[in-house]
Amino acid sequence: EILNRENTEKLSALKYIFLAGEALLPELVNKFRRLNTNVLLENIYGPTEAAVYASKYSLSQWQDRVHIPIGTPIQNIRLSILDRYDRLQPIGITGELCIAGSGVGRGYLNRPELTAEKFDQDLWDYQDYHDEDQKLLRGRPDASRGGFLEKSPPGRRRQKIYRTGDLSRWLPDGNVEFLGRRDHQVKIRGFRIELGEIENRLSNYQEIKDVVVVDKADEKGDKYLCAYFVLNPARAFNKTASVVAALREYLSKELPAYMIPSHFVQLEELPLTTSGKVNRKALPEPEPEAKEEEYAVPVDEMEETLVELFRGVLGVDKVGRNSDFFSLGGHSLKATILVSRIGKAFNVDFPLNKLFKVSTVKGIAKYINKCRKCLYKDITIVEKKEYYPLSSAQKRLFFLDRFEDIGTSYNMPSVIRLEERPDPERYEKVFRALIVRHETLRASFEYINDIPMQRIHDQVDLKIEYFDAVDSGKEPWINYLIRPFDLSKAPLLRVGFVQLRGNDFILFFDMHHIISDGTSMGNLVRDFEGFYNGEKLPLLKLQYKDFAVWQNNLLAGGVIKDQEDYWL
Hints:
The chain is α+β, with helices and mostly antiparallel strands. The protein is built from 17 helices and 23 strands. Strands 5, 6, 7, 10 and 11 form a five-stranded antiparallel β-sheet that branches. The radius of gyration is 29 Å and the shape is globular. Residues about 125-155 have low confidence and may be disordered.
């Protein structure tokens, strides 16, 4: 890293350095600039399938932005950024980078299926536009890349394009910004996450030399994010725990909570493939970060309460005053639950982003002691009525169903394979108990005086259907079980058993999203297991209609209405 003047002068005959193969990190460029040479750095992008080089960007233009662009297309190459429906993307909108032009190959040798997937016919005719209005309408940063007219008519010769699988976007100055791999886009707890975006943010942290972020699953099948990092030796922290806490706090200012990794693993170096790329399969499994000293006994009643909250949210037994919420498996969804329970237990406003700064029992207790107390308001149980209002989420789904002909778009089907022949009476008894326990399974939705309302029925009938796929095939049971719901008729739940062969059965059930979501599905599964095993479950304190009424009151005259008045 340190060159004396004599070694630096040996570079005097060197004019250019071309960098390619991996995403270029800002720290590497800044390190080279400190050598104070006249060598020009060029960031080159392109896959082998397009003759290696497809775009270039001179680092002399770069002004310490978060990402280093991959530039503009080289001669005889055209770049397009398309969405999942092959529509051209305007400035600033992420899509898949596609390459057309002289360098694009014909396909993969003896791999027709992969060739068909990655190589395609260009969909668009291009022509230069010099009219500024035309360029703006088409979202084109400059005329050199051309605008688009329309989809090519039949019979016209079109160029072949290569779908790179790289996520990119146009910048206002006409350059392309690389954002990561499309196959590194993951979905965790309903959020679609670009792993490359998290990596880019972390790589800009001055203590980080190299970093890679991956998605993993725990023993329960729940997905989480894990960041593997290598420290810059010149700026390294003394303790791994210190840098992890600092990284969490840094990311909490840069990214939403669901994009902050649950685990951080420090490595001496990232494992690489023979071609020099990060070998994600060789990354070690994250080990529990907790040490024995973290299980120190709580010193007061507040810490004891926090320990119990940690146990309840995380589902672990061993928690001490020095235990870290994220080290024990906490993630953004569990963090939201913990923050809510802390607020209720101690009558304080404990913001979610604060948990990323103080995530130990001891640290949270210290923060709470400094907080101003605020009255925590419980949701109250509403009196029995014929109809109840809808929550905001329910209203949206109701209008979509009524006016957009959404069909089965918001059905929530699930299939469970059974290892033995089901007992029909036992299953029917369990489902009846679930319907009695959860009012939302007895809800229907309709207009009352031109206002969408929900009605909670005292009783509803659920007919469980049985199908023999061996004799009748798949069509009858699929057509019955997978079809739109009529929101005016309860229950918005459909259950069926399908015999595939012998004692091989599946349990199929489907609900409309207006009465269920991912969290409530987990509650239903838990209660189903309890009833199936003969347990007597405690009565529910609240039902969803109670939340819906509370939310409507909040919108009508509570803190949300105050916020609306303020901003207006």
